[in-house]
Write a structure and sequence with these properties.
single chain; 511 residues; alpha/beta; Rossmann fold; two-stranded antiparallel ribbon; 16 strands
Length: 511
């Protein structure tokens, strides 16, 4: 990869009100002088552009990378927040209206865009083994042969309080920390970037991962209804739109059957299923899905009306599909929850399995306890991506900041769900409304087989209930990959994801 300076740091002065003085005010320091009011601190927009090239699909792509901040203001011109982004724009396009742009972000809430940026879609990625296991530190970057840059320009966005994005001095960060508050802030950055880069005429896409899919669904509706920005496509990686599918709350039995096929896949990977199920993963998953959507769901509906014999019989069938003991499942009231599952499955081996990616194993201090100490699948990537991002932004992109780059932070909590009082968040309806208003809008859904954070069967359930008109199904494509939440860390999945997305973009653009 070649890098040369394209532009020095560009500074744009922002609005700042001067302190008011009355006609009777005396000079500072004189007797009876009023204490001058300090001017509010000004936010500066700092942008650094560099030029690079990469070989994708057998041809060289020359592009400009721009790393920097945009300042969000209210209608009166008051600074509200500074948001960090990195944009990659292909050079040499005579007509940018024919070149699509994809606005990309991760989830959390509280996550920066580092995972999709340096793991999946950007022109540089963190080097890992082919299976996605971490290499010894320090981390290093390599050209990403599966980057989407040959398909679309890319803008990676860090929501307020993540990455280098921060509220303006004196502004309450809570105004950005909520489902709708977050959507409005990210939408404003998208609008500003579109205006300043002359991209109103370009086809537009969103790409989000995890809670970023929640944001993407909300944005699809907000951009269209409030800003008149219509989209060609939305990519959802490791999807959560309907929060009832993931909420293990008393009285909500929906997650248990939706998680079961992911438990089955996990037990298969760690060789904890009966011999006949270990032969073929696909057949094991299909058996699990049939049982989950049929007998298991009906049994949960009956609750305490199950007899002791029926409970034990059901526990036996669950044990076959989960690798957990009958006695454990009876003690769990036939309702195994994620964290206890990740601790229990390999307890006899004194190891745990990952939540983001259940292929990973962890070592706790003790084999007792209900939940693992850490998620080994997150521990394996946190350090790699943190060091790589910080080195890359300063070393290759030329952007420098003394702020801590917040990879994944709890500082956004509490997160507001006030637009969904006394109910589960469900932005699937926002997405449906956007698709109803925009018949050209297409949706791509990518799921990980070993993802225990956002299981694939829950995503299937959500889209099986996205309206009841066949046109929604016709515009939605679902794909499942052989790793976990960040399926792209596995080389085979990353390559397949690129092939699938290439077809998605071709279709969404009318190719």
């Amino acid at each position: 990869m070649r890098r040369s300076a394209l532009a020095a740091v560009l500074l744009a002065a922002t609005f700042a009100a001067l302190p008011a003085h009355s006609a009777l005010e005396t000079q500072p320091g004189s007797p009876g002088a009023a204490t001058p009011t300090a001017a509010p601190a000004k936010l500066e927009e700092k942008l650094v552009a560099t030029r690079h090239s990469i070989a994708l699909g057998g041809r060289e792509i020359r592009y400009t990378a721009t790393a920097g901040t945009l300042v969000l203001k209210d209608e009166a011109g008051k600074d509200k927040a500074s948001m960090f982004y990195v944009a990659y724009v292909k050079d040499g396009e005579a007509d940018v209206s024919k070149r699509s742009v994809t606005f990309t972000f991760n989830g959390g809430p509280g996550s920066s865009s580092v995972w999709l940026h340096l793991g999946a879609f950007g022109p540089r990625r963190v080097a890992m083994t082919d299976e996605g296991w971490a290499l010894p530190p320090p981390s290093r970057l390599v050209d990403n042969e599966e980057s989407l840059l040959d398909l679309t320009d890319l803008v990676f966005i860090d929501p307020v309080t993540t990455g280098f994005s921060r509220p303006a001095p004196g502004e309450n960060a809570n105004q950005f920390h909520g489902v709708q508050e977050d959507v409005k802030a990210v939408a404003e950055l998208i609008r500003l970037w579109t205006v300043r880069n002359g991209r109103w005429g370009s086809p537009k896409f969103l790409a989000g991962e995890s809670y970023g899919t929640t944001r993407a669904a909300g944005l699809a509706g907000y951009l269209q209804s409030e800003l008149g920005i219509y989209l060609n496509g939305v990519t959802l990686i490791s999807t959560v739109l309907q929060f009832q599918t993931l909420s293990f709350n008393v009285g909500n039995d929906l997650p248990y059957p939706l998680y079961l096929p992911s438990y089955t896949a996990t037990a298969w990977f760690h060789k904890k299923l009966p011999a006949d199920l270990q032969v073929d993963l696909a057949k094991a998953i299909e058996e699990s899905k049939r049982f989950a959507a049929g007998e298991y769901t009906l049994a949960l509906l009956r609750g305490n009306r199950l007899s002791s014999d029926e409970r034990r019989a059901l526990a036996g069938k669950l044990s076959r599909l989960t690798g957990l003991s009958v006695e454990y499942l009876l003690a769990a009231n036939l309702r195994p929850v994620i964290e206890p599952f990740t601790k229990e499955l390999l307890r006899s081996e004194r190891t745990t399995v990952g939540r983001l990616d259940s292929r990973f194993r962890g070592l706790d201090l003790a084999a007792v306890g209900a939940e693992p100490e850490v998620d080994p699948s997150y521990a394996a990537i946190k350090g790699e991506f943190t060091s790589a991002l910080n080195a890359y932004v300063k070393g290759e992109l030329g952007f420098s900041s003394d702020l801590n780059y917040e990879i994944l932070t709890d500082k956004v909590r509490p997160w507001s769900f006030e637009d969904w009082p006394n109910q589960y968040v469900n932005v699937a309806e926002k997405l449906r409304e956007a698709m109803a208003q925009n018949p050209a809008l297409r949706v791509f859904v990518g799921c990980g087989t070993y993802d225990l954070a956002t299981p694939f069967f829950a995503a299937e359930y959500t889209f099986d209930h996205l309206g009841f008109d066949p046109t929604y199904t016709a515009r939605t494509t679902l794909h499942r990959y052989g790793a976990g939440h960040m399926m792209y860390i596995r080389a085979e999945d990353r390559r397949q994801l690129k092939r699938d997305l290439a077809e998605f973009y071709r279709t969404a653009l009318g190719g």
